[in-house]
Design brief:
The protein is mainly alpha-helical and 87 residues long. It has helices spanning 4-10, 19-25, 28-52, 60-81.
Length: 87
């Protein structure tokens, strides 16, 4: 079994290639994969805010519109997450 000092010595350093992380974040496949997750998160936040909003001045139509907006964001994310069949 390797000693902890040997494991640390042989582990890759982050400073070896600082552009590797930047290249990964600008990779089109990564952007296509992360976009639906972000849209789903935004939709869930909107829906959660509408549900737990303590504002009693909101009428039912405003709450319905908020839930519709949240549903649209989540549905859009599901549409983006589907494969396009051009592989």
């Amino acid at each position: 079994m390797d000693k902890p000092a040997e494991i640390i010595k042989n582990s890759p350093k982050i400073t070896e290639n600082p552009n590797k992380i930047t290249n990964q974040l600008t990779n089109p496949e990564y952007i296509r994969a992360i976009t639906p997750l972000i849209m789903t998160f935004v939709g869930c936040v909107i829906g959660g805010m509408v549900i737990i909003s303590p504002n009693e001045n909101l009428v039912d139509t405003q709450r319905t519109a908020g839930m519709g907006l949240a549903g649209t964001a989540i549905t859009g994310a599901a549409g983006l997450a589907q494969s396009n069949g051009k592989h």
